[in-house]
# Entry
Amino acid sequence: MAVVVWVFAGGGHSEVQALIPFLRKHFPRCRFERKTPVRQKPGSKPNKAVSYGKTGQSLIDQISEELPIALKYEPNICDLILVFDDLDCRPPESQREKILEAISKIQESVDIEKFVGFASPELESWIIADWSHSIGQHPDFRSRHQRMRWWLSTERNVPFDSPESFSEYDRQKDCCQEKLSEALIDSSVLDEFDSSLPRFSKGLHTPLLLGEIQPNEVQKRCPLFRELYNYLNNFCQNS
# Structure
């Protein structure tokens, strides 16, 4: 019988499109069920305010609302509550504590295993960390990936050996001063490139490229990814 993992994920459509298939591919002994962002009911009008873009405190509020509902209607089913969010340059330990504190207030969740994982600052750091298997191999970028990498390194100070450390926290915006995903987009539309070449798209390319990355490569450069990967690998293998 498969081990059931409820996934409460922050971020937008591209993050969901990328994360769940990645988890299912690399941890096949677990059954991952997405709880947030909330799925739209068939035939209903899209409500972006409700479904997507939740991160940080907004995600915590959404978990506090949705987890009790899930536990009420699907009792004794969940083996692990997995919360996943873009860190956006916030300190990981304090964010983890806030999330776990909110969950601890839900009495029905007390006996369920919990883990909080982060992409720092965004999921695109995993792509950066294994550039050769992601951007470097994709037909949309193969002919110019070296130039893109050089530009990101020199013009945006992207640290390819430690992409999780990109940018700094902006207290007023409660996020990074610079967005890694936007830097990646900008690198794909340099003036010197043929304007007919595809630009990097979070919605299209991020899910595709996360399907190609090698976890062993990403672990070398992304400590928070390594923590998440090793935890899930151990949990799914031994539960």
User: Anything to note?
Assistant: The two ends are 10 Å apart (CA to CA).
